[in-house]
Amino acid sequence: MNAPAIVIPEQELSERFVRSAGPGGQNVNKVATAVELRFDVANSPSLPEAVRARLLAKRDRRVTAEGVLVINAQRFRTQDRNRQDARERLAAFVESGRAAPKPRIATQPSRAAKARRLDAKRERGTIKRQRTQRDWD
């Protein structure tokens, strides 16, 4: 069963349009096509507590010390396409925090695996021992 989708209201997002680097010719110096999208992960009421904790625990360079996610989108030449790209990347970031990590179950190596490992070690030791015993003169 899938959990309901997380919907982030428009009021929680803050967008700023800046001049973009990259392709665009003379247009790049005149039009602010790049988008800087900010989303306050730490104080957002629309995120479930577990998702918020997982997102803040990530070591993502886009999240500031205050818990604000900053996404810079300047891949495309148009402002509209960059806005769409920034929102898609925000959705992917939030989605990555929805899945709880699977707990690791400690296992023991089988008897056969232990035997194979020790045999390989013995084999390597034999090879190295034979190298020292040879008289090359």
From TrEMBL:
Record organism: Luteimonas gilva
Keyword Hydrolase: yes
Domain Prokaryotic-type class I peptide chain release factors: 19-35
Annotated Basic and acidic residues bias: 116-137
Tree of life domain: Bacteria
InterPro entries documented for this protein: Pep_chain_release_fac_I (IPR000352)
EC number: 3.1.1.29
Keyword Hydrolase part of the UniProt annotation: yes
Pfam families: RF-1
GO biological process, one term: rescue of stalled ribosome
EC class (word): hydrolase
MF annotations from Gene Ontology: peptidyl-tRNA hydrolase activity; ribosome binding; translation release factor activity
Name of the molecule in the record: Aminoacyl-tRNA hydrolase
Span list, region Disordered: 93-137
Keywords assigned: Hydrolase
